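Intended use. Records like the one below are meant for learning the mapping from a protein sequence to its folded structure. Do not use them to infer anything beyond what is encoded.
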Amino acid sequence: MKDLRRYLVLKYIQYLVLSSSNAVSTFLGLLGSLYTIIILQSAKVSSKSTAVLISSLAKADVLVAVSVVSEVVLWTFGAGVPSTAFTSALLQNLLTANSHVSCLLLSCVAFEAYLITFFPTESRHLRTVKNARLTSRIIWILVMAECALFQMDDLLKASSTSAPTHSPCVSRFHFSSAAAALLRSLSYFLGILLRIVNVYIYYKIFFSMSNR
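Structure written out for the chain above:
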């Protein structure tokens, strides 16, 4: 459990403290996720709702791994592998999806910690493995839908430059561009809100434990 706590601290710093990812935090995050996945396979770790959320958080770094490996392949074999606008946008959208999934799952872990600290008995029926799996599944579905919308918007941007002014492609571009812009704004403000909520939750937990 100490290792899992350290992993959560690493992820909180990576996604909710740092303004943007860097090579060091990304590398440490990937190593931490790999180690966490191995730990969670052990019989010593009980199958609880928190473990389910942490497992889903660790698996989210698969998106980062795919993006990093693809970047390395494109850089290594740059002359033989064409880097299209679609590929570049996809790799960036995968990183965005990873960030959004991780922030939401970390917030779920924080909320569960709040319930355990202040409402341990009353919240027991909510803190189940089934609910944790359902929550993780919903988060993944919503973020993947967001990623698909961003990818479609990037694809239409690339294709609209060569399309006639009154073509259906241009009309779809305006619609998807507006939807993507709105979703990006909502994601930005939601990210700020999640940071504030997480700080408040751990502030309350810290002083509650100190008073005890």
